[in-house]
Write a structure and sequence with these properties.
Length: 223
């Protein structure tokens, strides 16, 4: 079920969902509910995983698909797509509700959320999509361009992120829920800097990702 009427996102104080409409699975509905978590994942860390897990629980999602972005052509370089994809597979492998998609990597180039959602909607015509994003990213993703199509393709869930206040007034009115998730002040930027300086990233990223970074000698030098 999807609330189509324009309404401002609202916050919670206790982590409960604001938008009961979107959180509830409509009675008798056989449609699957799929969360979509896009990101550079360079590397994926426990902040991403906790946020996805919390949205999965509160929104009663059948699955959360992690979608590593394509390789930007001329922006700040990110690690090779295959490294980011494989780290995401490793990090999500143990959760039966988490999967990883190659749609953005295989399309290549700069990733636009509208393309991600179009591709996933085509792959899952029987599902309602819930696009999950951190407070810092949501305002950039939900631009007025393609807004109507974005609303039609997915419900948007903005998760709070330490250090990034979500300005409710800064968002266009629409189908957005705001969810407070357990605060993990972890960022990929900090993880990369720690590796570069020889500091450990154990417990910030999954163990398999620590080992992958070490095996492939990622983040050893300034990119
Ligand atoms: P970078 O520092 O390289 O920008 P990042 O840690 O922000 O990396 P991204 O891959 O850019 O990670 O983020 C993917 C999505 O996860 C974004 O929507 C972002 O807002 C969200 N996110 C990232 N870190 C957290 C966190 N600690 N808690 C909640 N959401 C997060
Ligand atoms: Mg980021």
């Amino acid at each position: 079920m999807r609330a189509r009427a324009a309404r401002a996102p609202r916050s919670t104080t206790d982590g409960a969902v604001v938008s009961a409409l979107s959180a509830a699975r409509s009675e008798g509905s056989t449609r699957r509910r799929i969360g979509v978590m896009g990101g550079t994942f360079d590397p994926i860390h426990h902040g991403h995983l906790v946020a996805a897990s919390e949205v999965q629980r509160v929104f009663d999602l059948d699955e959360v698909v992690f979608v590593p972005t394509g390789q930007p052509w001329h922006k700040t370089p990110v690690s090779e797509s295959e490294h980011r994809y494989l780290m995401t597979v490793i990090a999500t492998a143990s959760n039966p509700r988490f999967t990883t998609s190659r749609v953005d990597i295989d399309r290549g180039g700069v990733t636009y959320t509208v393309d991600t959602l179009r591709d996933l909607a085509a792959q899952h015509p029987d599902a309602d999509l819930f696009f999950i994003s951190g407070a810092d990213a949501i305002a950039q993703i939900i631009t007025w361009k393609d807004l109507d199509e974005l609303w039609a393709l997915a419900h948007f869930v903005a998760v709070t992120r330490p250090g990034h206040q979500l300005s409710v007034t800064g968002l266009p009115q629409g189908d957005v829920s705001v969810l407070e998730v357990p605060a993990l002040a972890i960022s990929s930027t900090d993880c990369r800097a720690r590796v570069r300086h020889g500091a450990p990233v154990w417990y910030l990223v999954p163990d398999g990702v620590v080992q992958y970074i070490s095996k492939h000698r990622l983040y050893r030098s300034e990119a």
